[in-house]
Structures are given as C-alpha cells and as structure tokens.
Amino acid sequence: MDLLERETVLQDLAGHLTAATSGPGRVALVRGEAGIGKTTVIEHLIKLADPHVRALVGACDPLTTPRPLGPLLDLAPDCAETVRTALGQALAGAGHPGEVFQSLLDDLRGCPSLLVIEDVHWADEATLDLLRYLARRLPTVPALVVATYRDDAIGRAHPLAALLGTLAGYRWVSRHALARLSRLAVARLASGRAVDAEELYRVSAGNPFLVTEILAAPTEHIPATVREAVAGRLASLSEPARQVADMLAVLGHRASLPLLAGLLPDADGALEEATACGILRVGGQLIEFCHELARLAVLETVPVAYRLQIHRQVLAALRSGPVAADDLALVADHAEAAGDSAAVLEYAPQAAAHAAALGAYREAAAQYTRALHYAACLPPEQQASLLEGHAQACSMARRLDEAIASRRTAAKLRHALGDRLREGENLRWLSCMLHLNGHSTEAAQTGLEAVRTLEKLRPSAELGGAYLNLSTLAVYGHEDAEVAAAYADRAMAVGEQFGDAGLVVQARFLPAAARTLCGGSGWEECEHAVSSAMAQDLQLDASFLAMLMCLYAVQLHDDARATAAVQRSETYCLEHELLTYLYCTKAMDSWRLLHRGSWNQATDAAHGILSHPLSPPVDRAIALTVLGLVRARRGEPQVWPPLEQAARLVDANFLLSTGLGWEARVEVAWLTEDDELAKTEAHHGLSAVADRTHPWLSGALACWIRRTGGTPPQVPAAEPYALELAGDWAGAAARWDQLGCRYDAALARLAGNAAALRQALADLETLGARRAAKRARAMMRNRGVRPVRSSPRAATRANPYGLTNREMDVLKLLAEDLRDAEIAARLYITPKTAGHHVGAVLAKLGVHTRHEAARKFECPKSR
After folding, report:
1. DSSP H or E stretch at residue 582
2. Which of 72, 105, 107, 777 is the most buried (most CB within 10 A)?
3. CA distances to 412, 594, 701, 747 from 773, in Å
4. Is the peptide bond prior to 787 cis by the omega test (within 30 degrees of 0)?
5. How is the beta sheet containing 254-256 ordered, strand by strand?
C-alpha cells in the first residue's frame, strides 16, 4: 500500500538518521493511535537508510506483565557478542542490567546504527530504564534511536509518561506525530474498489489500519467495524490456518515459532496460509499479528473454553523443560490464565525476583500481586515473604500505599510466627515508607517500635538499620542534635561490627547534618560523607545523602550550596538510574527556585512534580506549597487551595519539619493584609515547634509577628532573622543578599529608612511580587517617603519572566555573545549599569551563565 500523508515525517526521520549516524546521536519519538501507521513508517525508514547503517529492531509485547528487556532480546542477535553475553548474564541473575545498557552503548559507538523499539507503551520498567539510559548518552553515539508508542494508550499515571517527561529536557530529542488520513487520502486508497469512499472515511475515521482491513475484506460492502473486516479475512482460511490465528490470538501479540510448532505439529502449511492472508507475519523465529487490533478482533471470536485449553497447553509446553529466566513472566501469565494456582505460586515470585534484579520494579510488584491473589493457601511464613517482596518492589516503584499495606500485614504475620528479627525489619521499613508518605508522627512511633523489638535480640544489621532510621527521623524532625547523634552512634557501632559500609557512612552524616540545621558547624562533614559514599560506589546511600544535602541546603536558604547540591544529586541519580531520589531532588529544586526569586522556573518545576505519576505525597506537598506562595506573591487567585491540599497530603509534623508549609500560611495571610490571622498562625506555629530546635522556622515566625506589629517571643533564630529581630535590618538584608534570597532581603529592608524602602520596592517590583510591593507602597505613604514608584509597566507584566524593555534589550545582546562593555556601547549606558542589567536578567531567568540566558532567548524564537 502507498505511504500516504507520511512523507513529511519520513523525511524528517531520514534527516535525523543521516545527522545522527554522523554524530552526535539523536532520539526520535513517533506517536499516534493504534493503527496509525507507525510500523509502516519505520519499515520505509529502514529501506531508506544507507547500507552502512545497521538496523536493530525490537518490540514490546502486550503481556499482562511484560518480560523484562523483551525488545533487547529481539535485537540482541544483531548486536555484538558482548551485548549478548551481558544480556544472558543479567537474565540468568548473574549480572546487572546496567552492564547490559553499557555494553549496548559501547556497541552503538562502534557502528552507525538505527535502533528501533516499537510499542513502548507496553514496555517493562527495565526497557524504559534502557531508553532513559541511552537517551542521556546519545550525543556521544553515532545512532538514531526511534521509539514508537500509542499516545491514546497513555495517561498521566502511565509509566511512559515519566520517561517522556525526562526526555523533554534533552535538545537532541525530536517528536513526530502521525495524524489520521484525510478524505482525499482515503479516497485515493479506495480508488478502483467497489466501495463508497465517503462511507469508508466515515467508518474508518481515517485510521490507516482500519482502512486497510476494510479494503482487504472479501466483500463488496464496507463492514460496519474492523471486527467484521478481520472476520472476513478469517472466513477464507482453512480450519488449520484459522486454528493458527486463534492460537496466536490467545498466546499474545507474538510468539516463537518453536512454541507454536510444539502446540500445533505439522502446521507449516497452515502457518503459510495464515500469513498470506495479511493478518499474521513472520520475522525470524517470531510470528505475530500485523496489528494488535487484529489480534483482539480474533480473540473475541475464540470460545472461552478453547482459550482455557490453549493456556493449559502452553503452560505444559513451557514447563516441559527448564524455564529460562526471561520466560518466567510468560509462564506466570499463562499459569494465571489457565487457572493453575500452584503454577502461579511457583513462577510468579520467581518472575518478580528476576524483574526486580533487572530494575523493573513495576513488573516485579505486578508479579508479587499476582502471587498474593493465590497465597491464602500458603503457610504464613511464605505469605509473609511474598508480602515483603511485594512491599519492597512497590516502594521502589513509588506505589507507597500498597507498600505500606503489605509491610503492615507482613509485620503482623512475623509477630504471630514469633519471628522478631523480621518483624522488626518490617517495622523499620514501614516507618520509612510512612514518613515518605507524609505520616511523620506514625513513622516515628513505628520506628521506635522497631528498635524496641530488635533490641531484645542479639545485635544485628537489622538493628543498625533501625537505629539509623530513628536518627534520620530525628534530623528530619529537628529534634535535639544529641538525639540524632545518640542513635547514629549506635548505628555506627553495629555497622562497624557487621562491616556495613553504607550504615557507617550514613551514621557519620546524620549528626553533622543535625548540627548544621541547628546553626552549628557540620556542612563539611556532610560533604565528606557524601563523597565517601560515592567513592565507595554505595549508590543507594550516596543518592540518598545527596538528596538530603539538597533538602538541608534549601532549609538553610543558601542558594549557592543548594544549587551545587541539586546539580550533583540530579547528575548522580541520572547517571546511576536512581529515579527514586531524582524525583525528591526535583521537589527540593522547586523550593530552591522559590527562594532565589526565579518564580517562573519554580512554578514549572512544581507543575512537573505534580504531573508526575510517581511523585510521593511529601514531594507533592512541597510543590503545592511553592505554587501557593508564588501565586500569593504575584497577586494571583487560587492561593489557599494548593496550601490546603498540601496540608491534607501530610501531617502537621511534616509541615513543621520542613517549615515551608507553616511559614507559607503566615506569609499568605500577611500578603492578603490579614495581619491578625498572620500573627495567630505564627503563634500557633511557635507553640508547635517549642520542643524542637528549628531556628529557620521559629526565627521566621518571630519575624512575621514583628512585621505585623506584634511583640515576638525570644526563640532560636537563624542569623538573618536574629539580625532583623534585633533591629539590624541592614545586616539582615545584607545577609539575605549573600544567601541569594532577594525577596527576603526586600522584606527585611521594609523596616529600614527611606532609601531602604525605595530599594525594597524596586526589588519587589522587579521580582513581580505585586502584593508585597503594594504593602511597601502603603508603608512609604504612611512614613511620608516620596516619590512612590509605580508598579511595573504593562510590557514588564506581560513578559513571561518579568523582564523590562531595557532588560529585553540586554537579553538580545547577550544572545549576540556581547560583553558588558559592548552592551554598554550599544545601549549608551555605562559598563557598570550594563552589568547590573545583566545580573537582573540572569536572576529573573533563573540561570547562571550568559550562554544559558542566550538559549532562553533563542528557544521562544524557535518555537
């Protein structure tokens, strides 16, 4: 069939392939609904490729629980021996998926390649990780990676949405959408056929697959649905050929020829007939439906009893010999469909463990869930083991509610069995998950219960982990630094006794972190602990500590430290594919951007977190609070709803532990000129934090009481707050400027003289802080300070980054790579003034270098 209305996409892809195989590499995402022609476009692209370009094609299967790295199994025969070896070792449980990824990357570096992975909407988690891994490193590889997917099959919570969000930041990723055929194209396809082209277009809605199926049906009339079109093709088949189609429909989208031959001996002729009709096709040792819609149409016609019979036959065939690791998911799938609970309980846990070893935690959780459906007949100890595996897989897949439920049940079962060691370990993990889910009070109680349970036994690594958890919670909760240190010391002793390097490095980190948050020294010790974890390749420990450094730097309002910490954490998590802590880091980054006054970027980051299906409640609460504060500062509507939603996601202790949530409520009340509410909220916050050492929150709340005309109590206060409370507004503002917090510096200057008030107003207007600027103008009028500056001009308000016309002129010259002196000459200003304008532009854009600012200017033009 002609390739109609796909020429532009095909030409673009061919251009990407030519450029990519000469280096640097690229990614092309091809999307469209089922039957839109994605595979056809890929087939034409392969034909257009130069002979020296190697084509590697793999596809994902629509299994209930996909096989880990299924597409890689398809294309491995055409790869180097190193890839096949690494893949075999990983599938056998003797290797790590990261080694497979690296070997494939090395292979791609050695040969210009076109790597295609089709139907990524069906991909297992390990395959998504492979794409994420390759995409990040493609600029160093002479290859074009093409991924096709159905955009009508994914929603906000679909795992592929997370990958697409990650790829959004890579400039070497292109996106191509395939649209439905026009009336003209459908009429052209129907030309010469005894069909009504208009009716064909109406019935098919321009879907190429439906058009093809309808035109191929042996009938003079257009069927009402594709089901009838497929039925028309099947009607011409002999019984053996129809049996092949029915068998394959039950097996899934594709199956191996040896398996099919074992189920249907002497089926060669029938197989040839079935493929000749255009519904099935053979590639290598695989047979598959030309399209999933055809398979589903066939499947609907297969009697339920016959489906059950086929599943039982397949299960018996797969179990007739040793089951390969990569077939475990397939066996479990057919075992469940065959109603064989014993086989499900035998193979689903093995498939889950195999998937978890490959980093496919979502698939691992699904297999554990499958096994748990049949686990009631198992002894309690086996049930507990399944629940523990399920909880661990769910926690890594960020399905926290399920992880918590399984840990609770497992702990109860272990208690009933008298297995105190595993009971304590379950309680420790339950505590961790509860905190991540925003239930900090219950997390602390459960963590203490874990320690009490384990302390009754001989020393163990589990006890060390329980001590470490309590130390971590103490730091989170801003308890006395000595409490965190005491638990950390116990954890360290156990870690040294059992040679647990991760336990030791975290135990050294936590007391230093507690001292730092309480206003003491300890930052350098924290940095040393993170470096030590990375040097020892303790990946989980290093990523966790790197993420905590982001949290602590943001709580200290230190932009320089926070920026460095975020960059390091994101880089490390991406390099090691540790997405769990990457999402947390992004939440901290939205908070950092809020502090530095980059509110557009903060809002974008917050929306990214909220739209991400794997974001846990604690990250969502931070993002919602950031959104509420930005709206309040800008004078936008819908300020309280995100703050109230954040408060519902987590408990009050979590809001206190970060400080962000409670302080936000006070500030919003002040911005809306409800000073009494601001004072009331501030006093409530100080009462709640009275038994903690939280100088950055208690100092902030005391300052808000002072700003609303109240008398603040004597409380621990971090340096800039302490200076403001002591009446040294100039010192406070200077310290805020040093920390990179322009908004806070402006608030401190509101207590100053006329010059300070004018500077505060100018800074607030530059930031777009309309409500605070309104209060500043009122203060100036009350104090007789003149002149009062007007609010930003319409052009400035309309600019998405709040840039003035003059700042836009500067940004355009930055895009020409001009220095300050050259900018000054062009604009007839002094170099010093030009430097001030450049600094303002960088701050408003939320970037660090002139080149980054220039790219910000170029991106909108290109769009």
Report:
1. helix 579-596
2. 72
3. 57, 17, 21, 10
4. yes
5. 254-256, 286-289, 280-283
Burial letters 409-447, b for 16+ CB under 10 A, else e: bbbebbbeeebeebbbbbbbbbbbbbbbbbbbebbbebb
- 116-169 pLDDT, tens per residue? 999 999 999 899 999 999 998 998 899 999 999 988 778 777 889 888 988 887
Question: What Å distances lie between residue 9 and 29, 45, 174, 749, CA to CA?
Answer: 11, 10, 11, 57
Please tell me the predicted confidence (pLDDT) of residue 410.
Answer: 98
d(CA 72, CA 58): 6
Q: Which two tokens stand for residue 725?
A: 């409370």
CB 362 within 8 A of CB 159: yes
Banded model confidence at residue 420, pLDDT cuts 50, 70, 90: very high
How many helices (H) does the chain have, and how many strands (E)? 47, 8
Helix (H, G, I), strand (E, B) or coil at 22: coil
pLDDT (mean) for 508-523: 91
Task: Flag whether pLDDT at 359 surpasses 90.
Answer: no
Taking the domains of the chain in order of start, what are their residue ranges?
7-177, 183-233, 802-862
Q: Give the position of tokens 């109590």.
A: 713
Region 802-862: CATH code: 1.10.10.10
The fold adopted by the segment(s) 7-177 is Rossmann fold (3.40.50)
| pTM listed for this prediction | 0.77
Cite the beta strand spans of 687-832 per DSSP E.
none
Per-residue pLDDT, 820: 81
431 in Cβ contact with 447 (< 8 Å): yes
Specify the DSSP class assigned to residue 123. Answer: -
Pick from 236, 232, 208: nearest CA to 220? 232
Distance between CA atoms of residues 568 and 565, nearest Å: 5
The string of pLDDT tens digits covering residues 761-809 is 999 999 999 999 999 999 999 888 875 445 555 555 556 677 887 888 8
pLDDT tens per residue across span 223-255: 445 666 677 777 778 888 888 888 888 887 678
